[in-house]
Specification:
Length: 475
Amino acid sequence: MSEKRVSIHGQWSSRWAFILAATGSAVGLGNIWKFPYIAGENGGSAFVLIYLFFIALVGIPVLMGEVLIGRRGRLSPAASVSAVAFEAGASSLWAGIGWLGLTAGFLVLSFYAVIAGWALSYVFVTAKGSFSGTSPEAIGDIFSALQSSPLQLIFWQSLVIGVTVFVVARGVQKGLEKTVTLLMPGMFVLLLVMVGYAMTTGSFMQGVEFLFTPDFSKLTGSGILEALGHACFTLSLASGVMIMYGAYLPDGVSIARTSIVVAFIDTLVALLAGLAIFPIVFANGIAPGEGPGLIFVSLPIAFGQMPFGTLIGTLFFVMLVFAAFTTSISLIEALVALMVEKRGISRPRSALIAGFAVWFVGLGTVMSLGVWEKVTFNSLTGLNWEFVLFNQNFFDATAFLATNLMLPLGAFLLAIFCAWVLRDQDTAQELGMSESNLAYKGWHWTMRVLAPILIVIVLLHAVGLDVLPLIGLGH
Ligand code: PHE
């Protein structure tokens, strides 16, 4: 743009502030809760390799695209997309990408805050020593008791959202930046302490082997798709977050280098989380493929058996809460900025309204963990529609819709938009590269061809159309 735009919301004080905030968003339950268990379910190392491949080939390019759009537009996601589309002489309908992202981010936060609430409650449960010397069944019961108590769930969910609202109300530098500057280093130190502890368990090498010795025979087609979906999820792509955080990025900072650093730290944390968790799991004779209960049941069983388990366990959940919290604030920020821009509502009031809306929709997730567990669209309407969404309860359906459908669709549209719709001269300029630069060409080609094709395959699989056998991959 001939005239540089300025964000009315303020901006990060430095490149590092952006890196902390963006990794704060990227690093979360996805890294510490989800990555280890899906790696565990998919045989470990082969999955890890494929996942790294997708981070490099899809994650980083799309991340760069989002930051670029944000910094050029300097507004909330839909308005930023619309501004850069206008510059390219393209239809303002492209703003739909921004709206899609905002909606996906809203839905993700609605259930994310509930799960972050589990983690928060586990800080206290663990600190009380509830796991030490407790039988595995009783530890399983502690988790089920939490799931089936709406009041407890609502209490913790409200606390997470309340603090999120408080931080975001204080603004970009005083709220978000200050929080990530405190919590992210804290989280990282705690993670290193955990890895250090894992080294003393005697099963560290078993964990290393599990994560790093590739066994491709264990990799299935759906494992590959899960790796790609997770690469988008873990980098907070297509949820409005990275466009919004890009809008606060100072001019002159290299988007390519910064995005690579963000993706690198995010991946490092996921791997370190695996290195912290699996040795403890192995040392205590627990299976690695336990699924979603890995963190909330298997690990507590281990905490209950091992020396210093109460201390290590408490630190673990504090770390998880830090990680999840810096993600929650990122997910609400775009909604808040949007209300400030469109309606001229003050930031604190916008934060309150957004927080209330997220809290309210999150009640659906809370209820479907217990009383509404079996309530689905089909069971409510008496219809018999086949698509999985209609046979899932509120929580599963929201998670599926947002994570498996909206995020990949958004990432696909972002790639197309950046590489087919925007003018090369503009994207190159914003990335600070020349159009003939090899790195620029690589980015451009990936966004034009490779990323969209890969994402479409994942999307088709999610809606039940299986293209894997066509390209020679079974299940
Ligand atoms: N990246 C976050 C995590 O790994 C989750 C997230 C997904 C955040 C999508 C924003 C958007 O926990």
